[in-house]
Amino acid sequence: MIVITHNSIDIQNVIRSAESADAGALNVFIGTVRSKTGEKKVIRLEYEAYEPMAILELKKIIEVAKAKWNLKGWAISHRVGVLSVGDVAVAVAVSTAHRKESFEACQFIIDSLKQTVPIWKKEIFEGGEEWVSAHP
Question: pLDDT for 59-77, tens place per residue?
Fold first, then answer.
């Protein structure tokens, strides 16, 4: 499952989509909107995506992860639009035969997403705003 949505992310649906009877481990990463970045108070985040390309890039990331860690199941959901402090921005779930592979695959997917998928984040602070690079 790959979903880019303007709606709240259904974490339980992400988990169900990644479950597999063949897996001994299921790992979930949930990224939320924090209240501060450094000393700046965050008011909200705004995410934009080039959705067709984002979905294609996410599929590529999954193919690499499937080959490297023999994923039994997987799911990714990323929210776009205006998000408030505490909102879930992204959820990644993977299942594998063993826990080590599950942790590694999940980290690879979220790190790769931040590096290569055309989803952009603008942080709106008290007194200003800025577009944020995942890896400045």
Answer: 999 999 999 999 999 999 9
